[in-house]
Design goal:
InterPro entries: Flavoprotein-like_sf, FMN_Rdtase-like_dom, NAD(P)H-dep_FMN_reductase, NADPH-dep_FMN_reduc_SsuE
Keywords: Flavoprotein, FMN, Oxidoreductase
CATH class: Alpha Beta
Number of domains: 1
Structural class: alpha/beta
Helix content: 25-40%
Pfam families: FMN_red
CATH architecture: 3-Layer(aba) Sandwich
Protein name: FMN reductase (NADPH)
Organism: Bordetella genomosp. 4
Distance between the termini: 36 Å
Mean pLDDT: 88
Largest sheet: 7 strands, mixed
Order of helices and strands: EHEHHEEHEHEEEEHH
Radius of gyration: 15 Å
CATH topology: Rossmann fold
Length: 194
C-alpha cells in the first residue's frame, strides 16, 4: 500500500504544505507511511510547457499510479486552487486517479473561498477518474500559522484533519476499492466552522 502526498504550493513553508505534513505525520503514527511530492520537485519548464513526454512527468505518473491513496493540498488563490497544482495534474494520464482514495486539503485567506474544493478542485479530480473523494478539509490563513519553522493549527482544523486522515487510514487499511466503501465517508463535504 502506498500513500502519496502531493503539495500544490510553490512554497515549502506554506500553510497548505504544513497541513499536508501534519496529515502525513498522523498517518505515520497509525503505521502508514507516505511518500511526498511537491510542486518544487518537478522542473518548472516542464510544468509551464506541459511536457507530458518528459522524464519528470513519466516519474510523476509512475508514483501516482503506484499509490493507493493521495492527499492533495493547495492554497486557494482568486477562488480557485493553485495553478501550480493544475500544472502537475495536467501531466497525469486521463484516468490517473481511478480506483484511488483522494483527500483534498486547502487553505485560503477567508471563508469566502471555502467552496473552491467543491467547485474547482473536485471537478478536476473527477475528470482524472477520482470517484472516491473523502470530505475535504479547508482552513483559513488565521487558522494555520507558520513562523520560523513552527506550525500552529487551530483546534477545529486539527480535529477535522484528524478525522479525515483517520477515515483515509481506515479505508486504506481495510480493503481494495473494488470491495466498496461506506459512502458516508466518501462524500466530498467542505464543512467549515468559525
Amino acid at each position: 500500500m502506498t500513500i502519496l502526498t502531493l503539495a500544490g504550493s510553490p512554497s515549502q513553508n506554506s500553510r497548505s504544505s504544513a497541513l499536508l505534513r501534519y496529515a502525513a505525520e498522523r498517518l505515520a503514527a497509525r503505521g502508514l507511511a507516505s511518500d511526498e511530492l511537491g510542486l518544487r520537485d518537478l522542473p518548472a519548464v516542464d510544468l509551464i510547457e506541459g511536457n507530458y513526454s518528459g522524464s519528470a512527468a513519466s516519474a510523476l505518473r509512475k508514483r501516482v499510479n503506484a499509490a493507493q491513496a493521495l492527499l492533495i493540498s493547495t492554497p486557494v488563490y482568486k477562488a480557485s486552487f493553485a495553478g501550480g497544482l493544475k500544472a502537475i495534474l495536467d501531466l497525469l494520464d486521463e484516468k490517473a486517479l481511478a480506483d484511488k482514495i483522494v483527500l483534498p486539503i486547502a487553505t485560503g485567506g477567508s471563508t469566502a473561498h471555502l467552496l473552491a474544493l467543491e467547485y474547482s478542485l473536485k471537478p478536476v479530480l473527477s475528470a482524472l477518474g477520482a470517484r472516491h473523494i473523502l470530505a475535504g478539509v479547508y482552513a483559513t490563513d488565521r487558522q494555520v500559522t507558520v513562523q520560523q519553522g513552527h506550525v500552529a493549527i487551530d483546534d477545529d482544523v486539527r480535529e477535522r484533519l484528524d478525522t479525515a486522515v483517520d477515515r483515509l487510514a481506515k479505508h486504506v487499511s481495510t480493503a481494495p476499492l473494488s470491495q466498496g466503501y461506506d459512502l458516508g465517508y466518501l462524500a466530498l463535504n467542505a464543512r467549515f466552522s468559525v
